[in-house]
Fold each of these.
Amino acid sequence: MKKNYLVGMSIIVLFLFGYFFQLQNKQIQKLTKEVETLTKKVELLQSSEDKLKQELEKYTKKKQIPVSVKKKRFINMMLPALNDVYDELKTRYLKVKKDIDANNITDEIKKLKEFYSVKTNQELLYALKPHPKSIALAQGAMESAWGQSRFFKEANNMFGVWSFNKDEPRIAANSKRGTKTIWLKKYSSVKEAIKDYYETLSKSAAFKGFRKQNYENPNPYLLVKKLDRYSEKKALYGKELASVIKYNDFTKYDDKDFIVQKEEAKLTQEEQKEEEQIEEKAIQEAASDEVTTSEDIQKEEQESSSEEKKENIETQNSVKTETKENKKEDTKATKQEQTK
């Protein structure tokens, strides 16, 4: 009896085990199918995402302006204003030089010496002679990323010129120097920006060597070496400028009256590639909205402005004191007259 009972129970247990095993197996199969279905969906979504990315890349590439087009637009935009400014500066320089050579020191020459903070006629001629257009084009292209930088688009500031005067039009840069906000000048036109750029290089003590070199031998490839204080890149800045000038053949825009150059040898393919890489790197940095212009020149401008304000205040105080003294003298004289 016990034996039959045990056998019966064993059969029931086996039956139940088989039933649960089969049930579990069905659930496992069901889960496996669901996982497979989900995997296929994920793969399908991944495939769709990859296709969308490819389409987006194609669309973006279609919408991107080729570098050659950016360059052409930038040069066509900048050159007319640059020619105007350059011609105006050249005309003034030649007129002043003629007067100085004739020993005819006019009131205009005296005022120009004050404006440029120079004492000798020679220093004035250094300041007045405009430097090659090829350098202005190269600096404008590099500092504004061929006219694509925010500073140029929003403020016509293609040379990265700083502002220290809160009352003048300006915009803030995204980058800072420690906790200090960097402000850049905002110009009403491209011509105004170019004029201020030439004035900056003509007045700043940081570019005395640049002005002397420009007067004696205005070879752009020698001159760019004297612009190391214009940028935080120091000596590398001149090398980059030389590459931009050479690769884009900017010397063809230079004034042949001032610059007599021998024929430049054509670049080999290897040299061309090297110059192109240097240019691309410099342009990318400018497009990142980072300020690379040096603080040296900007501090100088600020100090110069402060000195001018100080001199004006001292002059005003001196005039006031003199006026008071004169009034006292007049009053004293009047009293003496009345006494008589």
Note: DSSP finds twelve helices and two strands in the chain.
Amino acid sequence: MVAMRRTVLGILAAFFLLAGTACSITTEDPGYVAPPPLPAMEHLEQAALADPAAFKAAGDVLSFITEDRNIVCSLTSARGEHLNLPYESNSFSDAANNKLATVPVAHCELAGYPKPAAGDIQDDCAGTGLGYLGGTALLSPDKATYGECRSGVTQMEAAYGPKGNKSGLLTELLVLAEGQNLERNGLRCSAHNGGVACGNVSAGVGFFVARDRYELISKDAATASQAPAEASKTP
């Protein structure tokens, strides 16, 4: 009889516990305001590093694409102006360039992008002053730049722009999820705040790029320029 009473009490206790849990109500706090995203360099310093093995594209180069298929980036190397990019032809491995120092870099290309601010134009494009276009960003250990001299679209624009073919090696790259952080030779890149941040945290140098804005970051000063992506379309 005692054993039966204990069993009944146990069943009742479990029933009331289940009922109490099932009736719990979660209410939304109308006064809650989500904290703003961290500045790019702070995010790069604090975000946990992802396993780089899955992002190896060729040799020790780490490459990724963003979830919205707007940005592709590589943590790679440069010899002079020659970049080792697995998804586009380049002269990095040419014997004539072996005499040049090999430098770690981070390079990003965008399908939709703002045009460069006048103060960020770094080249006169063979003396013409024409053809310096947005859509690319480059980080070396001590400097970040946005834009380049070219006569056509970026690889990303060719693949994922309004008239993109959505084919080729770019489509095979792994997505770097929002907040994930990769590092190679002291440089880091992370999918952050709707774009990509890359930086040399120890030197305080980096960039942030997104569809509608970009920022070049240095220890002494930071510049941010914004323009609608439509204003930057290449020929």
Note: The CA atoms of residues 144 and 206 lie 6 Å apart.
Amino acid sequence: MMNSAASVAKRIAKIKSKSGEQISIFNNPIAEEVQSKKLSEGKIWTPEHFNDDMWIAPYCVLRSALFSVVKRGKRKEYKQNAKTYEGEKIASWNGYEITMSGFQLDQADFDCLLACIEACKAQGFGDSVVVTKKQLLQLMKRTVSKDSYLWLDKSITRLVSAKIGVLSKKRKVRFFGSFLSSFIEDEQSSKFALKINYDLSKLFVDGTSYLEKKVRLSISGDLDKWLYSYIYSHDTSIKPHVVSLEKLRELCGSGSDSRRFRFKAKEALERLESKKLIAFEIKGKADSSILYASRLK
């Protein structure tokens, strides 16, 4: 029995043979259907209990400066080594070595990636999916406006342009590439044909975090979002997660000095605690402060 993708492809071929015209994926619903249903390069690795209420993200992403705390107007550009073609080394959790080239990514860019994964999950990594800009913005609960469209264009471009290298020391496996393999944009219809990098699925093997969509999207501020996602990437059911604030300052990519970061982190943690998401305690002085944090959900 012919599968749905092959059936649709046959219909397109018939139309093309009659008209002699190239069908654009953006102005023909049949072409969009085949673009979204074509066979994957391989089966997507899907974490258990992945449902519509959750975002999913690999531990190594949440425990690093890949999506960092960026001051407005202070986005850094990581350079590529001319000899090795690798990017600059960035702060990461024990067990990983991470490099990056391209413009610094922030927590809003991370929301954009999570929305892209959500839009692509039915087809799987490695397949293209046609989605409107409005749909992506709505997945992120962002206002649909001209400014939002401009921001989305830039965020998608940053995600495609950034080259990431992740070495898992435990598995001795290295991922190198972009989170988004490519995108095609149709300016007239405000649609994207997005392709998630198929190999990105392999980063989930070392550990997957499940973040409640409505919770993460209700949190404001890069540091608050980063701390929430970081803490929820650890199992605190038996004992609190323990980490120095200096280590956190490095991992989140903060440009603040130690004393200033302690003040900002304490404020952010208090806001998360007021939402009944975490419980925490900070011990020690500014240059040697230790965080004890537990998840409440």
Note: The CA atoms of residues 98 and 166 lie 5 Å apart.
